[in-house]
Structures are given as structure tokens and as C-alpha cells.
Amino acid sequence: MHCGQLTSSQLQIETDPDYGPAPMGPSEPPCSIAATLDVVGDRWTLLILRDLFRGVHRFGELQGDLGIARNLLTDRLHRLVEHGLVERVQYQDRPVRHEYRLTGKGADLSPALISLMAWGDRWYADAGPPVELVHDRCGTPIERQPKCPACDEVVAPGHIRSRPGPGSPVANLEIVDAS
Amino acid sequence: MHCGQLTSSQLQIETDPDYGPAPMGPSEPPCSIAATLDVVGDRWTLLILRDLFRGVHRFGELQGDLGIARNLLTDRLHRLVEHGLVERVQYQDRPVRHEYRLTGKGADLSPALISLMAWGDRWYADAGPPVELVHDRCGTPIERQPKCPACDEVVAPGHIRSRPGPGSPVANLEIVDAS
Q: Of A15, A63, A81, A112, which sits with the fewest C-beta atoms within 10 Å of its C-beta?
């Protein structure tokens, strides 16, 4: 389903064994899942983003909350700043102190974290979801499954098909079955 | 926002340096994002799942498509089978051959992969999305942003609040600001 015949990333970032496979060269067809995972495809990075969403912004707080080694946290934050998902903001003059804030690009990962959370809720929360996410205005739990806007219904994985989009180098419009 | 005051996982799996932090003990409050990432929180695992969704089911095909070392692929597939996201199915008698298929639990990660793909589409697909995901019945591109079913509108990250759910050990109903 995802990324049709497309298998690798168009991102040009450094090779780093911590992040799994190196991105392919620019001649490879693009895949937006791989592109995303090139930036946030490791557990620490996603947990740091989760904490920033939760309002944990300072290095020491992040370190304490996650139980992560200083050098790993420094590395992951540096990467997130470098890729524009997080910015380092001075919050105090004397002594100078900084904290980390999500940019618009970082905050835009909210739906992905929400979907990962929904899966954990469904498969590992025997006592029910530990946390509910609600719309601030009305308090209604938000809908986390993909929907068809035309049919106004949740679309199960077996009913999703992929086709080449505007950015695809693939000329034909072959539909790939998700099942 | 996500997981409110909750910081760690209730999963009991082995410690493995490849997968980042070890899950906390059973006395720690649960977090469904951490629970999910304990199982699928590495780039190879998510790329293997993507390929299984795409219809790549055999070891050799997965290896060739991903450019992954045999031992890493074996390890990740074993883990996915162990956690019930993937099953190993015999497809040939002589010689005996197996392939890997998503279970219902594995297929249920579809919304998470779709959300990760949507982020890559928005931030890294300069020429437009390489792939479009559509409803099989009507061909309409599916909606990938969280919606409020009561207000029938997409809810931006800044308008999502969290509150303790049925499975939360936290008694109070303090609302945590997502911004």
C-alpha cells in the first residue's frame, strides 16, 4: 500500500548507524515514509518529541524524564534542531539558559504521534487508554482513524489503495492492493 | 499533550540496545506511545512493515528492496512475529518456503504509517506527494488529519488537550496544554 512501488528516500543526510539504513541516492524514487523515518525514525527521537508536546522543554528535565544518556540526548536534540523540527530558545539571561521548543514542522508530527498512541491504546492498554485526547473547544475525543471525506466513514486498511501522486516518477497509474 | 504526566511503558520485553531505552518496570505509569515504540520504534522495523503493506512478503525480496543485512532482517522479523504483528506462512511444499504476512495487529498500524507518510509528503515532497492513498470504493484521497467528530473539523495540534483515560492511575483530571 504505502509508497506503491517506491522504496527509498530522496533525503540527503549523513549516514549514521544509529538511524538504520542510509538514504539512497537522488536517482532513487521517493517515498515519504522513508523520508520521515530518515529524520524521526528512532525511538529516542520520537520520545523526545512526545515530551516536547507534553511541555517538557529543558535539557535536564528531558534527561530525567526519559532516563537518556547526556550524549544521546544532545545528539538527538542537535539533529532535531538541524532538521528544523525544534528550536533552541533562550529563556533566561543570568546565567544564560536555553530550552527546546517545537517549530511548526515539529508540531506537525502530532497526527503521527497520535496514531502511534492509538495503536498502543488498542493493543497494550488492557485497563483502557491511559490518556484521552480531546478537542479543546468541546471536550470530544478526537477521531484518530483515516476517513474518507466523500463517504464520511472510517477506511479500514484493506480498503485503502495507493496510486502515483503528482510527485511520482512512475508514469502508469497501476493500483497496488493493500491486502 | 501526549500521555499527559505519563512517561514510560508497561510492556515487559527484553532490553535490547538496538531499540533504545529499556521499558520501565510494572510500577511505572503507562504510556501508549512508549508501548508502541517498544515494539516498532526503529526505522528498519517500520520500513519492513511498509514493505509488507506494499505486498513484499518474502525474505529475499525484503532484503533486496531494503538493502538490509540478513541478520538484521532476521532479527526484526523474529521480533515482529514474536509480538504478533506478523506471521510466517508456508507458501510452498517442495522445497518448503515461507513468507511473512501482516496479522490484524500488524495491519492496524496502517494509520500510523499513513500519518508518518503524510508528514513526509508535507515537508519533503517538493514535487508533490509521490503516492496518493485513496478509498477503494470511490477513489477519494483519504483524510489523514485528526478530526473532531462533534465539530466535524480537522483539529490542529494546538487545539488538542489530554486528560487521564479509563486506564490511567492518575486520579485528577488536570488538562495539559499541548502548546
A: A15
Please state the ipTM of this predicted complex: 0.82
Task: Name chain A contacts of B113, Cβ cutoff 8 Å.
Answer: 2, 33
More confident residue, B141 or A16: B141
**Domain range spanning residue B4?**
1-41+145-179
Residue A144 within a domain = no
Domain count, chain A: 1
Q: Is the dihedral of CA B86, A47, B118, A114 positive or negative?
A: positive
Residue A97 sits at the chain B interface (C-beta within 8 Å): no
- Residues contacting B103, CB < 8 A, separation 6+: B84, B85, B86, B87
Average of per-residue pLDDT across A7-27: 37
